[in-house]
Structures are given as structure tokens and as C-alpha cells.
Amino acid sequence: MPTRSCTSCPAKRVVVHGGESFTRDHNAPRDTVRGMLAALGVDTSCDDTGVGIVDLETGAILANRVAQQDDIHAAFGGVVPERASRQHLAVIDATAEAALHEAGVTRAEVALVGATYGPGLVGALLVGLSWAKSFAWARGVPWLPVHHLEGHLAAAAPDEPQRHLALIASGGHTSLFLVEPHGERITLGQTLDDAAGEAFDKVARQLGLGFPGGPALSRLAEEGDAQAVDLPVPMQGKSGFDFSFSGIKTAVATRLERDPNLRHADVAAAFERVVVQAIVSTVERAADTHGVDTVVVAGGVAANARLKARLAASPLEVHVAPMALATDNGAMVALAARARKHEATMTEWSKDAVAYEPWASG
Ligand code: KG4
Ligand code: ZN
User: Fold this and answer.
1) Choices 3.90.1150.10, 3.10.50.30, 3.30.470.20, 3.30.420.40: CATH for 160-321
2) What fold is seen in the domain 3-153+328-343?
């Protein structure tokens, strides 16, 4: 039986059982070591290199390492795809190594691999997808391609599947789905122009905040008076469940032009108020129309405190991804792969990265 040392922790001796079964020796007696099978998930869809590890049996998150690239893109005010791909390539090995080490999981204990194949930046996706496929192939374990939105929602999904609405609000997507208990998904609405996170980022830029703008704008909003600046509520009076945020971006620009002395904190708070109101009232209308009382909310904007508070005050049962799982990460992909582990394969290696692919019908 081959043995080797964990590269990041020389004290940890690893006993490899041909990649199928395993045991390990953390310098502890064998019978005190918990037999662990883990799922490893990778997301490199945009500008974060995410590698997460979850317990295959319980779904507990053992590690969730995200190597952020904000500094690399900040000067450009947005993600530069080629820079993102190169940075993923530079850090993915170390990020995975750190995740395994933090989880206390050896390579031999990884029994399932998941990777985001799209939608996203194709060059960036290719790095994580190829890495994950290579890892699974080399270890002789099954793997699964995961849709990015499936990953986001896996981070927030209730244990008991029930008919529910799923809202994704991120930098690239704003979509509302109706999800049936057996998994059928119907698109109820999506953004007609900017995604919600994109609107946060663009307005943050108008306010001279850094990139990504959502968290910075939200922090500034805490110091502002949300009623001090009058802004139109997006999509007000509209029927259907599509979203549109480009109008509010223009409204903020016009307002700032007209009155350059406005307190930026007040503008941030008012912007956040109307965007959150637009999202929540659309979700509430959809829930009413479709007779649903549960909503799952995921994506970077799900980290927004005002959105979470407003949803919590609604009559809906709300499942929101915890903060660390709201923005792009690898653990959400590992969770999605775990939920569909029976579909994992050791033979289908041809799955390619895609820039765009809808997640639901309708
Ligand atoms: O899901 P995500 O990490 O990446 C995409 O798949 O797009 O979402 C990133 C987006 C960015 O636009 C960021 O500004 C926004 O989520 N975001 C927020 C907050 N945290 C992240 N927007 C509003 N409030 C926040 N606290
Ligand atoms: Zn995302």
C-alpha cells in the first residue's frame, strides 16, 4: 500500500488505497480516525477561485477557500476576463491544497468532484473545469459538471424539497424560477438589462466606491437616510416577473448631476431601498400568483442585509444562503454535486465550458 506525506502538512501521513477506499493516519490511533468521504467542488466562473469541500454523508462544509481577485481588476472597474483566467491558473493548485488541508481531508478521501461548467467567462471556467476533471480522472473518482445557478441555489436549498420560488441575484444574473418538488424548473422572470449586482456595482462606481461595488455601497448605505433622496422604484406597476435595473442606474446618475451636493450615503441608502423593494415585491407577487409560500434566495446580492431583513419581514418562508456561501465559492458546487451524486460519472470527460446556458425551461 503506497504512503505519502501531505505536502502542506508533512506531519500528516496519508495511506492511499488505490483511490477507491481510504483511511488516514493523523498521527492518531486508527480507530479514532473518522472514516470520511468528501465531495470537492470548484468554481472559477468569474473572478473568484473557489474550492470547497463538504462531507459527502452529512453535507457539512469542511472548507471553503476563495482566492479573490478584486485587486487585480479594481483599476479597470470590472472583471478583465483574460486576467481572471490567468489568475485562476496561478492559484488553483494552492487554493485546493489549502482547502484540503483546512478540511483535514486527503486526496484519497475525495470521493466525488464537482465543477462549474457555465455560464460564465469561458476562459475562467476552463481553468477550474479542466483542473477538476484532471483531479477526478487522476484519482479515479466520479465527477459532475454543475450549472453555476444550480450551485448558488444548492447553498440555500431547504433540506426537504418542496414547491418553491428560487431567486438568483448576482453580478451576472437576476432570475426567478418556480421549482417543483421533483426538480422541474420554470423561469418566471429574468432581468431585461442589468443584473441586480451589476446595478449595485455601477451605482457604486458613480459614487466613487471601489469594485466590487455591492458590499461597499451597502456599507455606505448604513450611514445614510434611505428616505432622504427620492428615487423611482424599478418595475413599479409592471405586470409579469421580469426585472429591469438600468433605469434606476440612470435615475441615480441624473439625480447626482442635478444635485452634486447630495450626501452619497443617502443616495446609497435610497438606491438600496428601492432595489430591494422592487425585488421583494416581485417575489411576493410571484408567490401569490403561483400559490407558493417558500423562496430560496442565492447569489452575491443575497449577502445584502437590507434584502435579507425585508424578506424576513415578508409572509414567505425564506431560505437565504449564509454570507460565506452567497457569493461565488466552491462549497456550493460541492453541495450541488452531492445532491446529484448518483448522476456522477467516471466516463464522461467531454463536458465543455459554456458562456451561456439557461438553467430552466420557459
Ligand atoms: O454571485 P456572485 O459572487 O458572482 C456572480 O456570479 O455574479 O455575485 C457578485 C455580485 C456583485 O455584483 C456584488 O457587487 C454583489 O454580488 N454583492 C452585493 C453584496 N455583496 C455582493 N450586492 C449588494 N449587497 C451586498 N452586500
Ligand atoms: Zn455567481
Assistant:
1) 3.30.420.40
2) Nucleotidyltransferase; domain 5 (3.30.420)
Q: What is the mean pLDDT of each run of 10 residues along the chain (362 residues)?
A: 33 27 34 68 97 96 96 89 98 98 96 97 98 97 96 86 92 94 92 96 94 94 98 94 96 96 98 98 97 95 96 95 93 96 94 94 75
On the question of a cis peptide bond just before residue 260, with omega within 30 degrees of 0, the verdict is no
Q: What is the pTM of this model?
A: 0.86
Q: How far is the CA of 318 from the centre of ligand 2 (A)?
A: 19
* Rounded Cα gap, residues 101 and 146, in angstroms: 24
Sorted by where each begins, the domain ranges of the chain are: 3-153+328-343, 160-321
Nine-digit cell string for 288: 401569490
Q: Is 118 in the pocket of ligand 1 (CB under 6 A)?
A: no
User: Would the CB of 212 count as within 6 Å of ligand 1?
Assistant: yes
How many CB atoms sit inside 10 A of residue 25's CB? 14
**Sign of the alpha-carbon torsion through 205, 210, 212, 214:** negative
Q: Which residues contact 267 (CB under 8 A, 6 or more apart)?
A: 207, 224, 229, 252, 255, 256
Q: Is 299 in the pocket of ligand 1 (CB under 6 A)?
A: yes
Residues surrounding ion ligand 2 at CB below 5 Å: 170, 328
- Mean pLDDT, the chain, rounded, equals 89
Q: 165, 290 in Cβ contact below 8 A?
A: yes
CA atoms within 13 A on the CB side of 330: 34
